[in-house]
Design a protein that fits this description.
The chain has about 600 residues and is mostly helical. About 40% of the residues lie in helices and about 0% in strands. It has a two-stranded antiparallel ribbon.
């Protein structure tokens, strides 16, 4: 569903009870066609309160079925939902939310109000489609709960004869409706969920819902603690409809002033809407209570006026945040964004922090990455591409490939250590050369270009999911590939190994060290052997390579001093060993210069 950029504050004092004095219709005439209708008194009471209208001054048409938009209009009117506390950056249209809506139709405002107030309406809503009893009941229950007036409860399950006919997505709200007394079963114990609902039935459900609300008033908004879901929704609304955000948060997490402020600022900064600022920090008396990783975002929020310290200079980071306070913070953020619009993505050079964030998002939440980068470093096409590919490979998500290099006209401008990653990125379609065959490695990368590269990487990862690295035993073919990657593209290696052979810690370590030594990349060392408790299990011809690997910290013994040579080696352990080797080779190469 598309949404215009807006911020909404829902007041708990909104007219949800039966006394809607401001909406009363003066001298409302009684309907002439409801004398024999069940729930007649409830329909009259709603009419006299100005909460429902007939098809004319004297006719209600109780047996007429209602369309989707008529049902929405009834709910919006009855619950007093409106746009009074909403500020839009651009004028909203019903079609912003519902593709099939007519912006000039009588129902357009009701659809806008419903969407902004969080009603659970489908984006492909069909205005003239007849509403069923289950659809209307679900929308009504969701409306009174989404507007913050009714706590979510775990209902006592009510059995009814045709419950197997209820759409799965509606079953929970139907159960709550039965518990609230909003809807009742017929004399045969049936709900008749697929039956088209009449105007009279809808009015009676609305009357029952209002009666329940009157008997169960909600607490004042100021005491309503923000939920994790509400926090995410507020932040997404602040970021606007063009920001394609995937904010992941534990729905049961407690939202504090610290966590909400950090999430808001971090989201706006990584979304390119809020600048990364070089600030002079203010003194926060209770800063010791804050997570150090969140302090920068909170200092930014203070500097930009989103939040304030209390009279004694405390931020109260661990205090729960109310919905009212959170909305106030977001409103101030939106005011700042209006006054300081971000430059277009095309002209925005990627910052180092944004680069890291994009790469972490590509790697996914399960990758525990610690990417170290100078926050003031200039991010080029070369450095970003290398960092992306290297991160995905070392985390086990991207395979090490044996590639036939393509010709890059300006390859001389590239660091030789980065060339393998860039060749991989080209081969997998993450990046392309320009028409002249240049990669332009030293050109700054824009946020748009970087996002495009990451999107292509994510598409590849989805199409070629890596096996779970921790639990996957290394195959002979993977072992050879890892060792070739460690040796680098310039090493013309012909490693022969039985593709069906079992790869152990011993055989992989030997093959890795032996290959690098015979290719001249790793020196032959004169070592003082360390004691290996299970040395008797190691083949004598492999001992030297394993002692070298231990001395260079490529591998370690376990807590009992054992090497466990005959154990199968996992993909993750083998990658870790190769990473250590690459570090050793870099150090050795630097010493030779």
């Amino acid at each position: 569903m598309k949404k215009p950029f807006k911020i909404i504050t829902l007041s708990t004092a909104a007219a949800l009870l039966l006394s809607f004095a401001g909406q009363e219709m003066a001298s409302a005439a009684s309907f002439k066609d409801i004398n024999n209708v069940q729930g007649k008194e409830k329909i009259i009471a709603l009419q006299q309160s100005g909460l429902i209208k007939g098809i004319s001054a004297y006719l209600f048409a109780p047996h007429n079925t209602i369309s989707e938009v008529e049902g929405v209009q009834m709910i919006v009117n009855a619950l007093g939902l409106n746009l009074d506390l909403v500020r839009f950056v651009k004028e909203p249209k019903a079609s912003d939310y519902f593709a099939n809506a007519n912006d000039s139709s009588w129902y357009s405002k009701a659809l806008i109000i419903a969407a902004v107030n969080g009603l659970d309406l489908p984006a492909d809503l069909k205005p003239n489609h007849k509403m069923t009893r289950e659809e209307f009941t679900h929308q009504l229950i969701h409306a009174i709960e989404a507007s913050g007036k009714l706590p979510m409860v775990k209902p006592v399950v009510v059995e009814f004869k045709d419950q197997n006919q209820v759409k799965l997505n509606y079953s929970a709200s139907i159960q709550r409706a039965l518990n609230y007394g909003v809807v009742k079963l017929d004399a045969h114990g049936k709900l008749n969920p697929k039956k088209e609902i009449t105007r009279a039935e809808a009015a009676v459900e609305i009357s029952n819902a209002l009666a329940y609300l009157k008997a169960h008033p909600a607490p004042p908004a100021n005491s309503e603690t923000l939920t994790a879901e509400q926090a995410v929704q507020l932040i997404k609304e602040a970021a606007g409809p063009d920001a394609d955000l995937q904010i992941k948060i534990d729905p049961n997490a407690s939202v504090t002033r610290e966590s909400f402020t950090y999430l808001l600022v971090h989201t706006l900064q990584t979304g390119g809407q809020l600048p990364m600022l070089n600030l002079k920090p203010v003194e926060i008396k209770d800063e010791a209570q804050m997570d150090i990783l969140n302090s920068g975002a909170i200092q930014t929020a203070i500097a930009l006026g989103f939040v304030e310290l209390d009279q004694v200079g405390n931020f109260n980071p661990k205090a729960n945040i109310t919905r009212t306070d959170a909305t106030g913070i977001v409103n101030k953020a939106v005011e700042y964004l209006k006054a300081h619009p971000a430059p277009g993505d095309e002209s925005t050079t990627l910052t180092a922090e944004q680069a890291v964030q994009l790469i972490k998002e590509a790697a996914g939440p399960d990758a525990d990455l610690q990417i170290k980068i100078d926050p003031n470093a200039s991010v080029t096409r070369e450095s970003f591409t290398y960092l992306l590919v290297h991160t995905l490979q070392t985390s086990g998500q991207l395979p090490m490939l044996n590639l036939k290099p393509v010709e890059i006209k300006d390859e001389a401008q590239m660091e030789i250590l980065n060339s393998g990653a860039i060749q991989t990125a080209i081969a997998l379609g993450f990046v392309e050369l320009d028409q002249a065959g240049n990669f332009n490695p030293k050109a700054n990368v824009t946020r748009t270009d970087a996002t495009r590269i990451v999107n292509k990487a994510v598409e590849y990862l989805k199409a070629h999911p890596a096996p779970g690295a921790e639990s996957t035993t290394l195959t002979a073919e993977q072992a050879v590939q890892l060792i070739k990657e460690a040796a680098g593209p310039d090493a013309d290696l012909q490693i022969k190994i039985d593709p069906n052979a079992s790869v152990t810690r011993e055989s992989f370590t030997y093959l890795l060290v032996h290959t690098l030594q015979t290719s001249g990349q790793l020196p032959m060392l004169n070592l003082m052997p360390v004691e290996i408790k299970d040395n008797d299990k190691i083949d004598i011809q492999n001992e030297g390579a394993i002692q070298t690997a231990i001395a260079l910290k490529i591998v370690e013994l376990d807590s009992d001093g054992k090497f466990n040579p005959k154990d199968g080696i996992t993909h993750a352990d083998a990658k870790a060993m190769v990473n250590h080797v690459l570090e050793v080779l870099k150090r050795y190469s630097n010493q030779q210069k």
